[in-house]
Design a protein that fits this description.
By secondary structure, the chain is an alpha+beta fold. Helices cover 53% and strands 11% of the residues. The strands form four sheets. It has a six-stranded mixed sheet. Strands 5-13-10 form a three-stranded antiparallel sheet. It has a two-stranded antiparallel sheet with strand order 7-8. β11 and β12 form a beta hairpin. α9 runs parallel beside α11 and α10 packs antiparallel against α15. It starts with a helix and ends with a strand. It binds protoporphyrin IX containing FE. Protoporphyrin IX containing FE (HEM) binds next to α15 and α21.
């Protein structure tokens, strides 16, 4: 009662008003639950139809969640700016986020708050410096491997129809492991070797099979771990029900996979001469700061979790969009051919200078942000600046512990912010200045994605290489691709994959 009174007084002081309540006639979100359970048969889209429906009349709403707690939900740039930046300390990831991820990544940058998060962020920041991202040797090799994996062309210059997503997942796993461990798992090369019987990086058939099996087991377990994490997030306060032998086994597999690299990094930190001539990795740098085996493992896995599938999903959407929009493909290709001499190295600076390339990526992430939904918990009684009252202009009071959900996906698709053509794929819109807080694929403020430049550089590099190599691409099934169905888990990916064929350039 005392807490409630205090909250009411604070609401009055700040001129707060209630946002629209979208709970509906039944308690505990029954209506929403019913629609969610019927998704497979109703043909509704979870984001556009179910979550989007909440925002029909207002950009900030409240509703009663399954667990009986009232949550606030917003797509308002001013509120996101407050939550992520100006009132950063008042909104945290919270205990629930910690528990949902804990079995896989322990306590690490991604699920920590307060002092431990600050410590982790300071530990990592130097690793994401421009110099480290500028080292594109591995990206170059991984792009070439992906092009090799796409395979040969027929007499008319077309490759076979193919699902490119598995190749993209290999690409991001190979570049991420090189960055993290200083050594790539080489999953693309292993898959090619296993398929074609060419040894490449391995000395014998058995060696290829064993390494391929190890890389595959890791990749499979990584998928299982993510599925369980999503299940825990969806279960809200009942997160602990998302557990089981399969989850535990998969977490053991991915943790075991990192053992060798952790040991190597600890050994190198103890006697630096061992690392002479070897590439400096994120793991090596971390091991100079802490030799705690569990912390090293947790932190590294959290970066892998944060970076691998997000980048792969973005690349998947890029390919789908380029295949569906030949006019953008052709324009981008001619700009790339003009700016990137195939005889010269592709550098970070050149990629950044290619404005249309960056505009294409921005537009892909606007329409398909790979982290479409997110949340924070109020660390104390506080307010968000807008969304209350009939005109939605008054502040809204937020109770300590209350969940504030936000969807950058829906914000990126608001007509009042982006114009009538909001749903059109139009990289040209980026020629104009876009207000910062209405576009947040990597969020913003002190907790902005650490890997933003890494991801954009990887994706830009691969796109340049593909455009140098191929002069056309088209979807295997136009009608299916145009549906742009989304898979929703820890990230949002093209559910029907990136099924395309490429035409080899003869120039
Ligand atoms: C297109 C690719 C990517 C997207 C869309 C993306 C998006 C995001 C978002 C939205 C967050 C904020 C999560 C939150 O606080 O609730 C985040 C955090 C983070 N991302 Fe990324 N990310 C991408 C790629 C990467 C890559 C490649 C790496 C590393 C190699 C990475 C490392 C991180 C880390 C470490 C955090 C946690 C930062 C912190 O809490 O201080 N991300 N990312």
């Amino acid at each position: 009662l005392v807490a409630k009174r205090r909250l009411q007084r604070s609401a009055q002081q700040h001129g707060c008003q209630e946002p629209e309540d979208v709970t509906g006639p039944f308690p505990y979100g029954v209506r929403r639950l019913r629609r969610m359970l019927a998704l497979a048969t109703s043909g509704e889209d979870f984001l556009d139809d179910i979550i989007g429906n909440d925002f029909k009349n207002a950009a900030t709403v409240k509703f009663t969640a399954f667990d009986g707690n009232t949550a606030i939900s917003t797509t308002e740039p001013a509120n996101l700016q407050a939550i992520l930046a100006t009132q950063f300390k008042e909104f945290v990831g919270g205990d629930r986020r910690y528990h949902c991820f804990e079995p896989a990544i322990g306590h690490s940058i991604f699920n920590a708050d307060g002092a431990f998060w600050e410590h982790s962020r300071a530990l990592f920041r130097p690793q994401f410096s421009r110099e480290n991202i500028n080292d594109l040797e591995m990206t170059h090799k991984a792009s070439d491997s992906l092009i090799t994996a796409i395979g040969s062309t027929d007499a008319n210059g077309w490759t076979a129809n193919q699902e490119v997503m598995p190749l993209i997942y290999n690409f991001t796993l190979d570049t991420a492991t090189d960055f993290l461990f200083g050594e790539t798992v080489g999953s693309q090369q292993l898959a090619i070797a296993a398929r074609t019987g060419r040894m490449g990086i391995c000395s014998s058939d058995g060696d290829v099979q064993a390494k391929e099996a190890e890389a595959q087991a890791f990749a499979r377990s990584f998928v299982v771990v993510q599925e369980y994490i999503v299940r825990r997030i969806r279960l809200q306060s009942l997160w602990w029900l998302g557990d089981g032998l399969e989850f535990r086994k998969a977490t053991r597999t991915i943790r075991k996979f990192t053992d060798r690299f952790v040991q190597l990094a600890i050994d190198t930190a103890a006697s630096p001469s061992k690392g002479e001539g070897k590439k400096q990795s994120l793991m090596n740098s971390l091991a100079t700061q802490t030799q705690d085996r569990k912390e090293l493992q947790d932190q590294i896995l959290s970066i892998l979790l944060a970076g691998r599938d997000t980048t792969a999903s973005m690349l998947g959407w890029c390919l789908v969009r380029l295949a569906l929009h030949p006019e953008v493909f052709n324009k981008l290709r001619s700009i790339v051919l003009e700016n990137f001499d195939p005889e010269e190295p592709i550098t970070f600076a050149k990629l950044k200078d290619c404005r249309y390339l960056q505009h294409v990526l921005n537009e892909v992430l606007r329409l398909h942000p790979t982290v479409p939904l997110n949340s924070r918990n109020a660390a104390k009684d506080t307010t968000i600046p807008v969304g209350g009252g009939p005109d939605q202009k008054s502040p809204v009071v937020v109770r300590k512990g209350q969940v504030v959900l936000f969807s950058v996906y829906l914000m990126h698709r608001r007509k009042d912010l982006w114009g009538e053509d909001v749903l059109d794929f139009k990289p040209e819109r980026w020629q104009q200045q876009i207000p910062a807080w209405q576009y947040l694929p990597f969020l913003g403020g002190p907790r902005i994605c650490l890997g933003q430049q890494f991801a954009l550089t990887e994706a830009s590099y691969l796109l340049v290489r593909l455009l140098q190599e191929f002069d056309a691409m088209e979807p295997v099934h136009w009608a299916e691709a145009q549906k742009l169905k989304k898979g929703l888990g820890v990230t949002m990916w093209p559910l029907d994959g990136a099924k395309v064929r490429f035409h080899k350039s003869t120039a």
